[in-house]
Design a protein that fits this description.
heterodimer; A: about 170 residues; alpha/beta; two-stranded antiparallel ribbon; about 25% strand; B: about 170 residues; six-stranded mixed beta sheet; 4 helices; 6 strands; about 35% helix
Chain lengths: ~170, ~170
């Protein structure tokens, strides 16, 4: 016996509610759209801090300073401003950022708690160069991911931050 | 003569079906594009003409505060309002100082009134005892300008009581 096949009815989902939601979502996104991705880099004005006697006895302050000139950068430390590394800016490549980053990683390993660096740029240094240098002193870069160290509890720990607290010396 | 009558059989109304497949395609593409560009930052900055922001690897999202912008021509804007330029020889930019102190005073007064409404203390006593809260300034400077301009801006801002500076940069995707 032959049964007559019923023609299959095409199922049509009701798209109206989802379309409503998508429209509202699009309007919200369009209103809040910002076509340049904006981020911020922080810096504080210099402030005077008074070291207590105990701190003074323990260790001399690192006083890490980056002297920025149009054609060179010099990294110094200590109150006597001992030169750690000096690098010339090359015409095409610019500052040797990998070398600076490596020097900072070495300093950070010996001073793991230290997070401040003082920037001393000359008046004629371009602002874009300062931002590049701020990026380099803030984080471990150029192949190395993290710095390993032993924390206060004697456990192994890692950090990728170098000197996050950037202070401009010449502003006040 | 027989009158000709037009007897029309009533046609059944068929509901119009609109093919929205192509519209849906466009919407989905637009949605993906907008979602990709969505920035959750609190800060919305309407950059003035003549500013190219430097690029940075920073991924710290900005927050709203007083926005100081300086374009290529060294014109200074505070919250998108032109207030002067940075061509003066002196370190302190008087126009900027005035604009920033005004902003700070207005903000402090607003906060004091809010505090008064909350606690019932009078504005004057609230204003005197409350620590100053507006200490952060967003600085957006054209990348081609020199440090001299930035130094003057920071110097003036710190004199006006702003000692936290946030340099506004654009994301670097290299």
């Amino acid at each position: 016996m032959k049964f007559k096949r019923k023609p299959k009815e095409l199922l049509r989902p009701n798209l109206i509610p989802i379309l409503d939601a998508v429209f509202i979502f699009i309007f919200f996104l369009l209103m809040t759209a910002q076509f340049i991705d904006i981020y911020e880099l922080a810096s504080d004005a210099p402030a005077v801090t008074i070291l207590n006697k105990k701190q003074e006895k323990d260790k001399d302050p690192l006083n890490l300073v980056l002297l920025i000139k149009q054609n060179s950068i010099t990294l110094t430390s200590g109150l006597d401003m001992n030169v750690i590394r000096s690098m010339k800016k090359e015409q095409k490549k610019g500052y040797n950022l990998a070398k600076l980053n490596a020097a900072l990683i070495d300093i950070k390993r010996d001073n793991i708690k230290e997070s401040s660096i003082i920037f001393k740029p000359d008046s004629n240094v371009p602002y874009s160069d300062i931002i590049v240098l701020m990026d380099v002193v803030r984080k471990v870069d150029f192949g190395l991911d993290t710095i390993s160290y032993i924390n206060e509890n004697g456990e192994n720990s890692t950090t990728e931050e170098l000197f996050n607290n950037i202070i401009f010396e010449t502003i006040i | 003569m027989k009158r000709k009558t037009f007897s029309r059989a009533k046609k059944k109304k068929i509901p119009l079906e609109l093919d929205i497949t192509s519209l849906m395609d466009i919407l989905v593409i637009l949605l993906v594009f907008l979602l990709k560009n969505f920035n959750a930052a609190d800060l919305t900055l309407d950059l003035v003409k003549g500013i190219t922001l430097p690029t940075s690897t920073s991924r710290n999202l900005g927050t709203n505060s007083v926005n100081i912008m300086v374009n290529k021509q060294k014109e200074i804007y505070v919250d998108n309002k032109l207030i002067g330029n940075a061509n003066h020889k002196s370190e302190e930019l008087a126009d900027l100082f005035k604009a920033l102190t005004d902003k700070k005073e207005k903000y402090d007064m607003k906060m004091a009134i809010k505090e008064e409404q909350k606690t019932g203390r009078d504005v004057a006593s609230v204003k005197d005892h409350r620590p100053l809260t507006l200490t952060k300034a967003n600085i957006a400077i054209d990348q081609n300008l020199h440090y001299e301009v930035l130094r003057k801006i920071m110097h003036t801002a710190s004199l006006a009581g702003f000692h936290q500076f946030k340099f506004i940069v654009q994301g670097d995707y290299q």
